[in-house]
Specification:
Number of strands: 4
Strand order of the largest sheet: 2-1-3-4
Radius of gyration: 17 Å
Number of helices: 8
Strand content: 5-15%
Structural class: alpha+beta
Length: about 200
Amino acid sequence: MKLYYAPDTCSLAPHIVLRELGLPFNLVRVNNQTKLMEDERDYREINPKGYVAALALEDGTIITEGPVILLYLASLVPDSPLAMTPGSLPYIRLLEWLNFLATELHAGMSPLFSRTLPQQVRATFEARLFRRFDYLEATLQDNLFLLGEAMSIADIYLYVLCGWCNVFGIDLAGWPALDCHHRAIHARPTTQAAWLAEK
């Protein structure tokens, strides 16, 4: 498999999951500004939507959309702690979290990358984001991970999204349980290996 990625983007989540699952893969770096790959080809030939991540299977099939890639990867190793039985209640809860993270956090945080965003508009986005953080903080009070004691692919996705707070100048210390969650995943050898590989 090939994972098309760009540093400091959500493609870090499937990268970490690939390492957690011990799956063989190659990385293909994409310049997120020019959309050119290392061989100077246009990344939009791989994913016409233009954003990372994309996963190329051995038969040439391309899978896009971060949460979908995460679910696909987990399905390849069904006995992994990251995998859940499709249709089971834990699986449905996992889908709930992935949807929440994609629509409420990921989509809600993306505008904060804009350097031209007026301060009043930024404050509105941040206030909404902080309400989501409050919800996550309450969820993580009793367990280190979103679904209980075991880490899921949703936790890895959340880790990557919260990592953007460094770019936005947001201190997670205001949400201690969320900060603890972030630090726990950051300390994992697979996470460190992914960060090192993307430098």
